Fold this protein.
Amino acid sequence: MRALVWHGKEDIRCDTVTDPEIEQPRDAIVKVTSCAICGSDLHLFHNFIPAMLPGDVMGHEMMGEVVEVGSEARGKLKKGDRVVVPFTIICGECDQCKRGNFSVCQTTNRKKYLADKVFGHATAGLFGYTHLTGGYPGGQAEYLRVPFADATHIKVPDGIPDEQVLFLGDIFPTGWQAAVQCDIQPTDTVAIWGCGPVGQMAIRSAILLGAKQVVAIDHLPERLEMAEAGGAITINFDEESVVERLNELTGGEGPEKCIDAIGMEAHVSPSMPDTVYDRTKQMLGAESDRPHVLREMIYVCRPAGVISIPGVYGGLVDKIPMGQLMNKGLTIRTGQTHVNRWTDDLLRRIEEGQIDPSFVITHTVSLDEGPEMYKVFRDKQDSCIKVVLKP
Amino acid sequence: MAYYISNIARSKGDPKVLRSGPSSLGGADRMAKALGWFSIGLGIAELVAPERFTRALGMEGKEALVRTYGIRELGHGIVSLSPDKHIGLWSRVAGDGLDIATLMTAMRHDNPKRDNVKFALAAVLGVTLLDIIGAQGVTARHSRPRGRPRSYRDRTGFPQGVQAARGAAKDFQVPPDMRAAPTLAAVSDRAPQERARPH
Ligand SMILES: [Zn+2]
Ligand SMILES: [Zn+2]
């Protein structure tokens, strides 16, 4: 089959690879009908999370048709089922899964020894996302083996296009959880850094959850325009001071809730000297992530407010103003998304027409064009916001 | 080919590469990579054995300067190999200018190694040309073309419109583990003994 394979920094190729096979009785094989490139794939593209190996298949946002089912997954899945595959592999049985903390499932990371060393304790297995999370081959491919498939799937009905349900596997529940863990009140201002795909989903989620105002921060005009279309007030950080504008919009008090939909690769600009500092340290290997957004959020957030972090961080950050954080009594909520905790509810909202997540798709191409699209998406060329691949 | 070795980390049923296809790396990217590694190599040589350079060029006594250039060269290399490679390559072009200027000072008539200096100058000029081609190449490949971006004004994501969407998910119950501090009203409206109770 064909698949997008990681070969090194900025080197992703559309290769011919062997077909995946059922290994365990709980496995299933899915024929991928649609998959997407995620912002967090770019961290791997840049090798900023250095736990990829040449030959790893990329991709963690995918859906398709079940074509083969292992003996123990048969009660829950059958050939021909249409499924979205969540990016977090879950057993559904461990303590964490039972609590709904699916992204920290205790059983599915098959490289637990590695993750235990690096993270202290292992988190769930993830598709196409380094050997720290199990080294599972991803879904930017024609076929995907889904481990623990009896639990790791979201069944979707026929008759609803791929484009409307594909994002149930990651970015929609990720934006949703980011907003949910802000516990949004009708009086709240929710500020969202980053108008990439997750930021766009977080904006829509905050609107649906009834925030008083949603403020979106970016500097790319097309992304700000999409944010505004979704009901957000926008701030272009190239043109105005984020802190000043946020204070202005909140009567000088600051936003109650802040969402970081950027993560480890904040935009570097001489107008934000700390980003140049971080970038330099990053190149010298003295810091792995650029936490500009965290610093700004901690500074501008209203005391006793909440900081929600769906953006991916990889390792070590520097110069986090712990004094501000502690004295202001801020709550930080983070985590990879507990996808399956939200998907039944979100699927219903899609079916009822409350939201249609396909609005974010700007490019649809074949798998062969995937490598080039990584570049286009990374360089934000051609107003690219979200790429869907059709294997 | 590295993937043959890394297959050790894979299980039996995992896909393995049979044939490699088109890559996300363009010609300009490969050139940046080559020039980046060249910078690193040259930088290490200048740092470790500056006397070799000064002796060959009749610039004895300038070892400290060569070492400084070695550090500079390493900087060019690291940036050229990073995602910000256009900055790395343009910095290499600037560095080439500095190298040329420095070599020009060694073109004195009384320098017995003048021929070596001429040779070095020719080499630096050649590399400068490559750097300029590379820098222009990666800049063109990775920059956002000027002009108006596409319009996404109609991409609301809400089939029933933004107004209808505001608060439409109020039926959603935030799970207890994701609640935040209570609102002002929630605390002050409650009876005093209730108020003391944790949320
Ligand atoms: Zn993702
Ligand atoms: Zn589990």
